[in-house]
Amino acid sequence: MPCHRSTLSSIALLICVTLTSVSHVTGVSTQCQGSNNSFPLYTESPVFLESVANGKLYQAGTGNDTFYVVHLWGTPYEQGFAQGQLLKSQIQAVTPMMMAYIDSQIHSAVPTLPQWLVDLIGAFGAPYLLEMTFNNTKAFAPQAYLDEMQGIADGAGVSVKDIQNYNMFPELTKAACSIVGANGGATPNGQLSQLRALDFDPTCPMKDFAQVTIYHDADGLTYANFGWSGMIGVLTGLSNTTLGIGEKVWIKHPKGVDGTHGEPWMFVLRDALTAPNMDAALSRIQNANRTCAIHVGVGDSTTNTFNGLTIAAGAYDVYNWTSLNWTAHPIIEDVFYWDKHTQPSNDPCLGEYLQEYWGRLTAETLATKVAASYATGNMHCITFDYAANIAYVANARKTTVTSGSLNAYHRQFTSLNLAELW
Q: Does the N-terminal peptide bond of residue 242 adopt cis geometry, omega within 30 degrees of 0?
């Protein structure tokens, strides 16, 4: 299965935004004016629910905007097994729901697909495409991740093939994410703030299984994966080193620069998140057997730096806030940003908001004012305050909820004190 966007063109893409700081207050034009998030931040600590060997489960958030926080210890298999035990009903539910969702999305794309692929879909459905993706990448996946998926399957009492296929969904769709990195003059204290705004399909059933997974590895490294139950790859993450990472799809990439045989991009980002510093994280990405064409944002509070990367099987380029300058994307001091559109973007609005709040770009402002007003992060919207070790988290409206905005950026943000979670 090719890793090219046009093959599955009607499958909704995860569209990422990489945000950072702003240079001068300019005001926002009429065409860009949106509404802030009016909910006060929810700051209560997660509530303990259950524990098993190598795992503890908590519930964070309030009212209709709750999500799970799960702590995992032990070997990769033990971590997976503990997650499977703690979230058995959720994992048993999400995998068939996602198979049905993916199948519906693929079938809507049939008119644009080659006949050989149409025939395979007709015969085998979505699971075949996902299994083919897994087989293309298995040889390049770290054994620890394969062990963890096996543990999840055993703990939850489901087929490991279902867990493997589910974890290939972002690889198949070229999923993306949003990252905010602002520092220097753009933030009140000069320290790094980061936004990750995931724009996808807020009706996707994964939204009902939002989860923050805290891995406590034997080597002392602890890191948070902001995603969904049973999904082990990283598209939004923060570590106690502290590194932050996220991704955005690269749509207009050169033909042939992407590939199908390599390590899934969410696994590559997890590898990078567990690095000790920015240089090591970039080295891991550069030396990985990469596949899909994506943009990546990486922040490092130790060096107080933020970089954007454009990568694929045959591409690797690194940028900072001085690198990108086009008509609707002006250079903003101490701010690296990619908006939610195809790059280079012709939409000036994100830049205008970043300029409007330059000097005041805290993680809270990035969440409740920039992301909310710009309307980015409909699936999940997450910001990091590196100095305070706080994450602000909002997710799309659950299927069982009928009131309030569907989009994460206009729903309740919960403040997670990561210093307590580490």
A: yes
Q: Is 108 helix (H, G, I), strand (E, B) or coil?
A: helix
Sheet architecture: strand order including 243-249:
47-52, 55-62, 65-73, 210-216, 222-228, 236-239, 243-249, 294-300, 305-312, 315-319
Dump pLDDT digits (tens) for 96-155.
Answer: 999 889 888 776 665 655 676 667 767 777 788 899 999 999 999 999 999 999 999 999
State both tokens at 263: 């390590």
Using alpha carbons, list the distances in angstroms from residue 336 to 195, 250, 340.
11, 16, 14
C-alpha 91: how far from chain center:
19
Asked if residue 164 lies in contact with residue 137, where contact means CB atoms within 8 angstroms, the answer is no
Say how far apart CA 38 and CA 279 lie, in whole Å: 39
User: Do 245 and 256 contact (CB within 8 A), yes or no?
Assistant: no
The predicted model scores a pTM of: 0.91
Contacts of 269 (CB under 8 A, 6+ apart): 233, 234, 235, 237, 245, 246, 247, 285, 296
Provide the pairing of β-strand 15-20 with 179-182: parallel
Instruction: Give me the sign of the Cα torsion angle 331, 365, 390, 226.
Output: negative
Q: What are the strands, taking DSSP E only, across 229-353?
A: 236-239, 243-249, 294-300, 305-312, 315-319, 335-336
Measured CA to CA in angstroms, residue 277 lies from 53, 238, 284, 298, 414 at distances of 31, 12, 11, 10, 27
Environment class of residue 349 by beta-carbon count within 10 Å: exposed (0-12), middle (13-18) or buried (19+)?
buried
Q: Are 338 and 347 in contact (CB under 8 A)?
A: no
Nearest C-alpha neighbor of 171 from the set 199, 138, 143: 138
How does pLDDT run across 226-244, given as a tens digit for each residue?
999 999 999 999 999 889 9
61: enclosing H helix or E strand: strand 55-62
Listed residue (366, 137, 373, 124) closest to 233, CA to CA: 137
Cα 179 to Cα 319: distance, rounded to the nearest angstrom? 14
Question: What's the confidence (pLDDT) of residue 107?
Answer: 67
